Amino acid sequence: MWISFHSYKGGTGKTNISGNLACYLVSKGYKVGLVDTDFSGPGIHALFSLNTKKTLVDYVQNKAALEDIVHKRGEGELYIIPSYATEEDIVSFSKDPAQAKEKLQALLRDFQTRYNPDHIIFDCSPGLNRSSLLIMGTTEISIIVCTLDKQDIRGTYVISGVAQRLRSRPRILFNKLPKNKYEASKKTLEELSRKLGLEPIGVILYDEAMAGAWSRKIMVHAYPNSEYSKQIAQLWERINQSTGSP
Questions:
Q1: 245 falls within a domain
Q2: Residue 180 lies in domain
Q3: Which keywords accompany this UniProt record (predicted)?
């Protein structure tokens, strides 16, 4: 399964969710690819403390081959393609969006053939941009990570509208919701999902251990019994239910 995580703005927690979900799946015996397509503010390399010399940016500029940018992480079957910050996006390095899509698909076909991952997870750039929309149109399930910040909600509404015009049906995941407000907020979140035109795929509650990790630890490894880690496992169950996977 190919899964992409999106957001309207930075700081919603999508990189931590992407990285922890990837590691959770590896712990369950899956081969997983984790691809950072956030050229504006990549975070996967920092989350995993990767010493990157060549990244996805080099690949799309024809400065590196696939084997130069794939980093096998740990003892499990996790294969990471990181990025580094640049002013451009994936589409900008090609003549047009069609060429960019073709190049990305060629990369993923090659990646699939060489490493045979069961799942590929994409950490996409925030905002309404060509790169994020390109990935959204490529994956089987796309998830917009949203907080209850007003600006974030308004931006998510815009992304939802564009996604629907492109015949994509992303889900919405609410993140960092205070635990003491969850029960009282259930109906509000359901109504908000309807107004946004997005299928809800769950809520991840604010977790003190997660906040204290400062995006420097993989929670499912460092704190496997934490509430955050349990919620990552629950998210995977909901993704399966949403897609009808066994």
A1: no
A2: 2-240
A3: ATP-binding, Nucleotide-binding
